Amino acid sequence: MKIAVINPNTTASMTAAIGVAARSAAAPGTEILVGQSTSGPVAIEGPFDGALCLPGLLRAIARAEQAGAVAHVIACFDDTGLDAARAMSVYPVIGLGEAALHLTSLLAQQFCVVTTLSRSVPTLRANILRYGFERRCPHVLASDIPVLDLHRPESGARERIRALIAHGMQNGAEAAILGCAGMADLAAGLTQDLGLPVVDGVDAAVRLAETLVWSGHRPSKVGGWALPARLDQLAVTA
């Protein structure tokens, strides 16, 4: 089974870190095809960046299918381009945000999301509402640490994220979701430190993608995710 994990931004170091997390989550026999957009923003921190990354993301998915991928993970917690990707592919396409919310809903009654910048919060709130989790996930907390600063020691990212999860716990959260692919390597340590489930979207999305492939189900092409008539115009070499 080949599963593509696509970073929609153009930062190679982040793509490499996402690849490590994805391969750690994958079951034996699953091959992770790590890819990234070759055009667009260096980080996705709000709707403007999300719009810029779409052409490169869709081309990366098309290339992955040529390489044999039978499922795709869009490695951005905003679920950037999710509907467009589902419309162009006959294979399952999983967004980190949607996967993490569904998985966490099986672990806790109430949970929170901790993300990067405040301008990402409206997009995540809109997704939570769309997926039907607004009552169970009432809090989206921003660390106000940019994506590319998460692994700089001077940013204090881990301590800030830990404090925000603790704040969520004080307001009823029984689990937490890390709302950025760049936070993937923090989940295990925070789970141990805080004594509650801390869910990483990369891990959740890879496992869910495997489950859908094993189930034999493919996305419906009746209605909103029907294959677009102009799909052959997508240039995969750009």
Give an account of the 3D structure.
By secondary structure, the chain is α/β, with parallel strands linked by helices. It has 2 domains: 2-95 and 203-233, Rossmann fold; 98-200, 3-Layer(aba) Sandwich (Rossmann fold), CATH 3.40.50.12500. The chain has helices spanning 12-25, 47-66, 82-88, 96-105, 121-131, 157-170, 187-194, 201-215, and strands at residues 2-7, 31-36, 71-74, 93-95, 111-115, 139-142, 175-178, 198-200. Strands 2-1-3-4 form a 4-stranded parallel sheet, sandwiched between helices. Strands 6-5-7-8 form a 4-stranded parallel sheet, sandwiched between helices. Helix 1 links the parallel strand 1 (2-7) and strand 2 (31-36). The protein is globular. The relative contact order is 0.18. The mean pLDDT is 94.
Radius of gyration: 17 Å
How much of the polypeptide forms β-strand, as a percent range? 5-15%
**Secondary structure category:** alpha/beta
Low-confidence stretches: none
Spatial order of strands in the largest sheet: 2-1-3-4
CATH architectural label of the largest domain: 3-Layer(aba) Sandwich
Q: Report the span from N to C terminus.
A: 27 Å
Using DSSP, what is the number of strands?
8
Keywords:
238 residues; alpha/beta; Rossmann fold; four-stranded parallel beta sheet
Chart the SSEs and their pairings.
Elements: E1 2-7, H1 12-25, E2 31-36, H2 47-66, E3 71-74, H3 82-88, E4 93-95, H4 96-105, E5 111-115, H5 121-131, E6 139-142, H6 157-170, E7 175-178, H7 187-194, E8 198-200, H8 201-215
Parallel strand pairs: 1-2, 1-3, 3-4, 5-6, 5-7, 7-8
Helix pairs in contact: 1-8, 4-8
